[in-house]
Write a structure and sequence with these properties.
By secondary structure, the protein is mainly alpha-helical. It has one domain. It contains eleven helices and two strands. It has a two-stranded antiparallel ribbon. Strand 1 and strand 2 form a beta hairpin. Helix 1 runs parallel beside helix 10 and helix 5 packs across helix 9. The longest helix is centred in the N-terminal third of the chain and has 35 residues. The N terminus is likely disordered.
Length: about 280
């Protein structure tokens, strides 16, 4: 009897510690949502891989699906609190949003049935290619004499035709849309703060259908304690508990960050996320 009570107490202690760690990570998720438009994907996938590592190969699918839930909630809050003058840059882009949603649903569905190594190493490979591209191809990192516009530049660097591939890749890997949309908008002449702010409504279009697919069909692929479909709801709520207050605070009092610092920090975060997923593999 004493052994059983001790085991229960240890279990509760482990659960409390996991919640605390996820809550603290959620604070970082809130920061990345506001400053980089990530919505949580780049942070959520690595941390859920660690939390659900005991589930084996299913951990990747759970991480991707849980990331979608976290991204939807965070991106909605960030979008609602974004200035109307910034959101107007996406006016008239209904076709882009529809195609992003179609791609988001398709990518999430595909992620349920492929071997776990595909989204895991796809995540690492895609970010690696993106980092090299951002470093070598001009337009993302600010150059002397070519400052980004701080005016009302439309998101013209995002052709509607790319909606499906962007949505598919983003939801399949669990990264949200910012890794593709932010560089594209930057190369169209948009400042970093505007591009990362617009990444949030674009992320909603991708992650919302991906979340629905994970909830509705994930249970047919994975069954486990604490899962709704393929979503680890408890972990998602712990992350959101930390992220939401940070998003609200930073939206009310946005920090002023130099373009160069903002761009290099974005790049550094990509490297950290890819490294974490590679190590957990």
């Amino acid at each position: 009897m004493q052994y059983r009570l001790l085991a229960i107490d240890d279990s509760r202690s482990d659960g409390d510690m996991t919640f605390l760690v996820l809550f603290l990570v959620g604070l970082a998720v809130g920061v990345t949502t506001v400053l980089f438009g990530f919505g949580g994907g780049f942070v959520t996938v690595p941390i859920i891989l660690l939390v659900d590592a005991s589930r084996g190969g299913d951990a990747v699918r759970i991480a991707v699906a849980t990331s979608a839930l976290v991204m939807v909630v965070n991106a909605v809050i960030a979008t609602v609190s974004t200035r109307r003058s910034i959101l107007d840059r996406l006016r008239g882009r209904q076709a882009l949003f529809i195609l992003l949603a179609v791609g988001g649903a398709a990518g999430a569905g595909a992620a349920l049935f492929v071997p776990d190594a595909v989204p895991r190493w796809g995540f690492v490979a895609y970010i690696g290619v993106t980092v090299v591209d951002l470093l070598l191809r001009p337009g993302f990192l600010p150059r002397r004499g070519t400052p980004q516009s701080a005016g009302n530049v439309a998101a013209r660097g995002l052709p509607d035709a790319l909606g499906v591939p962007i949505g598919s890749i983003a939801s399949f890997l669990g990264v949200g849309g910012s890794v593709m949309t932010v560089p594209m908008m930057r190369r169209s002449g948009m400042e970093m703060s505007g591009a990362t702010s617009l990444a949030n409504p674009l992320t909603i279009a991708i992650a919302a259908p991906a979340m629905v697919v994970a909830f509705a069909f994930g249970g047919d692929v994975i069954a486990g304690t604490g899962l709704v479909g393929t979503v680890d709801v408890a972990s998602a709520l712990a992350l959101l508990a930390g992220a939401i207050p940070v998003i609200v605070l930073l939206r009310r009092r946005p920090p002023r960050i130099p373009e160069a610092v903002h761009s290099w920090a974005y790049l550094a975060l990509l490297v950290v996320a890819a490294t974490t997923v590679a190590v957990t593999g």
